[in-house]
Amino acid sequence: MKKAIGIDIGGTKIAAGIISESGELLNRKEVKSDPSDRESMFEQVVKVVEQVLEGSSFSEIEGIGVGVPGKVDRENGIAVFQNNLPWQQFPITARLQEQFGAKPITIDNDVYMAAFAEWKAARVKGNETFVYVTVSTGISCSIIHNGSFFRGAGFAGELGLIPVLSKQGNERLEFIAAGPGVEKLAKKELHEEQISTKDVFAGFIHGDPSYQSIINEVTGHLAQGLYSISCLLDPHKMVFGGSVIVNNPFLLELIKEKLKIYQIPEQQHLLDQMSISSLAQNNGVVGAGLRVFERI
């Protein structure tokens, strides 16, 4: 059985796993990120890889796949820019090879890595257009068309930057519908400082009217952003990941109800092809590992 290591690097945690060529997650470990400086952050990456390798031989590993937030230089193995990590122009590929040996290393944006795992799991036909959307501390998407990533000039898929209409006017989707945006909206609407995103969703589930209006507003914003994808790409399938929607799956039906209002009948085929990730928090690790075996 061929095996690879997949690494999913984030601002709060780093996960690593051993992945089979068929996409099976054989082992998984997780450590906290340390974004205090670039070397401390890299030490945590080394730590989680060493943990996941315990009981295994690195000689059995075909290579390493790494998902990094923000902009990456895939050809030269460099983490170019991230909002929440101290790795501007960090040579992640060279450093990993120095640490673990000259194995093939594939790096890409973390959302692209997760999208690849979801694309494989969804068994999308080769000529179809697939979109993966993540709603977490940020909002982004990745597009796979005809079996290849659509990258544009290198920054395609930044759904969270699209302006949508809110009560305050035009605002970027990420600022008013990602996790921190939900919390900020709740504090403003309810005039409470001690409230979290988790509290908002719990209040909605328990039927509190004040939380109902907040979730109604948030899902309306998300529907606006997703309608831009529906119009521009008319995708065959769309899968959602990220902690906000994976932990609160009821959101999808609310989003679909509002999206349907915008869509003309010829666009509504998408509603039946929208689903929540079955891989949940593991999609980044699995996708990074699978990219060692298949590069697109």
From TrEMBL:
<dbReference type="InterPro" id="IPR043129">
    <property type="entry name" value="ATPase_NBD"/>
</dbReference>
<dbReference type="Pfam" id="PF00480">
    <property type="entry name" value="ROK"/>
</dbReference>
<dbReference type="InterPro" id="IPR000600">
    <property type="entry name" value="ROK"/>
</dbReference>
<comment type="similarity">
    <text>Belongs to the ROK (NagC/XylR) family.</text>
</comment>
<protein>
    <submittedName>
        <fullName>ROK family protein</fullName>
    </submittedName>
</protein>
